């Protein structure tokens, strides 16, 4: 094999990923080569003229091939940063998105305004990025989590061990059906893609689990169920906080209003899109 330096490997890898349709081919190539060499991405640029060993080149090519086939970089690296913390991820869970950090910020806003609100449940927790970030940032809050997927909860527990000394309770549950107790705040980033969208993604080879993506014909099946279930799981005046897509926000606001929530409000992400909807439980007891 002809010797290749790091600069050339990055250029060739980026070109290859660009031809495959990757959105960020050069960044992906940098991340995969830094993963191959077990160094930080920034260190690559100090070593551009270094020769890439044959075994490293072969490993890098293998990662590029998987990325070109649609495997997310986070799955290939087995990690994803969320709110400044590093989470283990694999194909058992959805890859955490930066937009979901808005849920964490909204919970912190609520607890700042209402310090007596000291219990939070994260429904559809997946990797645990919301629950464990809240537990890490706010040790005074009692945090628990649930997911219908036992494999997803295995990833949650792994991240729990990596990030926290304490162990938030976790439950296998279809939404809130098997979740005990009552909470001041219930948060969820539920599956909210349309079934037809998920069909298209899976036909194209999208690797994330369908159960973490599919929200039914209009994407809001689980939002409707959560809005009803949460009323009996929230303390009086407690908050339900949900992430949905911008185009679903008007319908989500209507669902919470029709379900009897008060003070229904919307939060926008950094791109200005409507991303988080919250409402308060009207129940008196």
Please provide a written account of the structure.
With 285 residues, this protein is of the alpha/beta class. The protein folds into 2 domains: 4-77, Helicase, Ruva Protein, domain 3; 80-280, 3-Layer(aba) Sandwich (Rossmann fold), CATH 3.40.50.150. 42% of the residues lie in helices and 19% in strands. It contains 11 helices and 11 strands. It has helices at residues 6-20, 25-37, 41-44, 54-68, 73-77, 101-113, 129-137, 150-163, 195-203, 221-233, 249-258, and strands spanning 4-5, 51-52, 80-82, 85-87, 119-123, 142-147, 169-172, 183-188, 234-243, 262-268, 274-280. A 7-stranded mixed β-sheet has the order 7-6-5-8-9-11-10, with helices on both faces. Helix 1 crosses helix 2, helix 1 runs parallel beside helix 4 (54-68) and helix 2 (25-37) packs across helix 4. The longest helix has 15 residues, at 6-20. The radius of gyration is 21 Å and the shape is elongated. The model has no long low-confidence stretch (mean pLDDT 94).
């Amino acid at each position: 094999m002809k010797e290749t330096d790091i600069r050339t490997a990055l250029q060739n890898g980026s070109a290859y990923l660009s031809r495959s349709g990757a959105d960020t081919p050069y960044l992906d190539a940098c991340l995969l080569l830094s993963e191959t060499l077990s160094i930080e991405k920034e260190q690559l640029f100090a070593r551009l003229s270094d020769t890439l060993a044959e075994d490293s080149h072969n490993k890098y090519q293998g990662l590029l091939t998987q990325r070109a086939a649609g495997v997310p970089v986070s799955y290939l690296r087995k990690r994803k940063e969320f709110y400044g913390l590093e989470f283990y991820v694999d194909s058992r869970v959805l890859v955490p998105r930066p937009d979901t950090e808005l849920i964490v910020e909204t919970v912190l806003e609520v607890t700042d305004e209402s310090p007596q609100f000291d219990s939070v449940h994260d429904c559809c927790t997946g990797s645990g990025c919301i629950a464990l970030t809240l537990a890490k940032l706010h040790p005074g809050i009692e945090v628990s989590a649930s997911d219908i997927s036992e494999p997803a909860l295995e990833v949650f527990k792994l991240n729990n061990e990596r990030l926290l000394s304490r162990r938030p309770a976790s439950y296998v549950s279809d939404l809130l059906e098997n979740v005990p107790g009552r909470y001041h705040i219930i948060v969820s980033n539920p599956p909210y893609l349309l079934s037809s969208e998920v069909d298209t993604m899976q036909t194209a080879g999208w690797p994330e689990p369908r159960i973490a993506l599919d929200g039914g014909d209009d994407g809001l099946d689980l939002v409707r169920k959560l809005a009803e279930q949460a009323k009996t799981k929230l303390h009086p005046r407690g908050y339900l906080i949900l992430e949905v897509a911008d185009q679903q926000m008007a319908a989500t606001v209507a669902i919470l209003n029709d379900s009897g929530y008060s003070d229904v409000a919307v939060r926008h992400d950094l791109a200005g899109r409507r991303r988080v909807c919250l409402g308060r439980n009207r129940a008196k007891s």
